[in-house]
Amino acid sequence: MSIQNSRLPLIGAVATAIGASLCCAGPLVLILLGVSGSWISGLAIFEPFKPYFILVTILLFIWVGWGLYKPQQSCQADDVCLIPKVQVNRRRLFWVALLIATILITTTWWIPLLPESWLY
Predict the structure, then answer these.
(1) pLDDT at residue 95, as a whole number
(2) Which of 17, 46, 77, 91 could form a Cys-Cys staple with 101, CB 3.0–4.6 A?
(3) Per-residue pLDDT reduced to its tens digit, 65-76
(4) Domain limits at 31?
């Protein structure tokens, strides 16, 4: 995957993971930050779209992972090839973004396990 087109799918994957967690983690984050109001319950409107956000997130991460870990072909004269150090940094960023997206997507299951004192 070239330098120019490897950022956009990764950014898109994290953005869709945030979209998938808006209904669940969004209100929790806002309450922890001290933001309150009845409008926070309006974020539940995103709940029906959660499976679609999750699907797009998974597909984008597969695309990025395939681009980062596929066997490298030899560089042609007009191709832009990743420097090994840059490729290692991109792979690290990929795994950090995947971890963050996994945490955001799975909020439905781990938020109920938090102590109630955190929520008030």
Answers:
(1) 92
(2) 17
(3) 888 887 766 666
(4) 7-118
Nearest to 50 by CA among 28, 24, 31, 27: 24
pTM of this prediction exceeds 0.70: no
Q: How many domains does the chain have?
A: 1
How far is 68 from 21, CA to CA, in rounded Å? 26
**What does residue 35 show for φ and ψ, rounded to 5 degrees?**
-85, 130
Please report whether residue 39 resides in a domain. Answer: yes
In a domain, residue 46? The reply is yes
